[in-house]
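Q: Entry one of two.
A:
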Amino acid sequence: MANDQKHFEFTGVVFRDGKHFVCLCLEVDVASQGRTLREAKKMLAEAVTLYLETCFENGIPYLRPVPREDDPRVSQPEGVLESFPLKVDFKVHAFAWAARHSTEEARRRAQEGGLLRSAPKGKPPGRRASDHDNARSALECGGLTPP
């Protein structure tokens, strides 16, 4: 895997599974399929991009290579049609949820999206999360972005 400041480059392999082409990214163990070779490669690039976004957003490691014994180049080399470089471009977008954005606005957006539930009746046990905590959590879990 090569990387620079604008993209990652992984290794992809293609093999047939019945009528479909299956592509596998070996460094991150993400697979996809398509009816044509081009469609399978396109779907793999999209799947790897979404996988990386999820890893970066949640602060989890993104490399999880396919074990050698499961690598199609080793386990079934006659079935591998092609090995190819898979380039994934990316941009980092950083933002801060500023105090000028109303917690009530965040709460309203979270409730409209079904991401925030009302507190149960009666006094909840232990520390009660503030409206700010609820709205922030809803934004983080729901993928909402500031206006």
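Q: Entry two of two.
A:
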Amino acid sequence: MTPQEAIKRIEEFGLHHAIGDLPHSMRTVEAFEMAINALKQQEKSRWIPVTERLPEEHKWIGTECFGTTISDEVYVTIEAPSGDRIVKHLCFQNGAIPSHKQRELDAFYKGGKPIAWRPLPEPYKEDNDDSTGSDRQGQKSKGSVCV
């Protein structure tokens, strides 16, 4: 079972079985929400084989000019034919590493291919307990364009 399937099953179970006396239902729903959040967080931090799936791509400024889509930047494990591996900070364009980035990789890892990727972590956020009144919580990191 994949984490996505587990999240879906927990969500479905929680909706159908958290019925009954209200305090019990509220605790059950809260427990399910915590479990779902933990699984989602785990899913965000795992290495995903490129054979399983690639990062989601979206339109960017080059879509209109070149007809391409691009992913947000991610960490990518590159494996050389020798078996050596390196982690690079890249994006995918039309389901592959952009050609200019592939040329850079080939200069050091001739024939190196991506084998897995993972999303970048969220940027550091200071605790909301400071006395300055600044509140950076809740601000999402903006996707970056990799070209």
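A: Comment on entry two: Strands lie at 48-49, 57-58, 70-71, 74-79, 85-90, 113-119. The longest strand covers residues 113-119.
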